[in-house]
Amino acid sequence: MTSLTAALLCAAITSRRDARVVRELRRASLEVLARARATTAQRAQAQADAEQLWDLVAEQPEGDRVPVLVALARGLLVDADDHCVDLDRALRDAAARHGWPISPEHEATAAALAVALSRPS
């Protein structure tokens, strides 16, 4: 359930300039977490995935971390359930309002990091 991982990733996004951005992300994240029909094992796996991704994002240059994190979370929401639309919009709007432009390089890095979630069946 990549939407759970995306929602958990948002906890790493902070802003000293705009608390409203963070509140909106939290609200949308909590909505996804509350509406997810996931087992305890799926939730634990989503938490482990988010922690792994946080570590990988932390290895990026400081100025690229939030844009990569936003691109990563939005990428995980592709094909997600309808109740995830608000989270996707909150991420998009936060990036635009707060000046976190997502470049093609950020998108490529996010896609490469998402491969870390791939597990053999």
Map the helices and strands.
Blueprint: H1 2-9, H2 19-35, H3 40-58, H4 65-76, H5 85-98, H6 104-114
Helix pairs in contact: 1-2, 1-3, 1-4, 2-5, 4-5, 4-6
Describe the structure in your own words.
The chain has 121 residues and is mostly helical. It has one domain. It contains six helices and no strands. It has helices at residues 2-9, 19-35, 40-58, 65-76, 85-98, 104-114. It is globular. The model has no long low-confidence stretch (mean pLDDT 89).
How many domain units?
1
Cα Rg? 13 Å
Question: Helix/strand/pairing class, anyone?
Answer: mainly alpha
Shape: globular
How many helical elements? Answer: 6
CA-CA gap between termini:
15 Å
> Count of DSSP E strands?
0
State the order of secondary-structure elements, H for helix, E for strand: HHHHHH
Short description:
This protein has 121 residues and is an all-alpha fold.
Characteristic terms for this protein:
mainly alpha, 121 residues
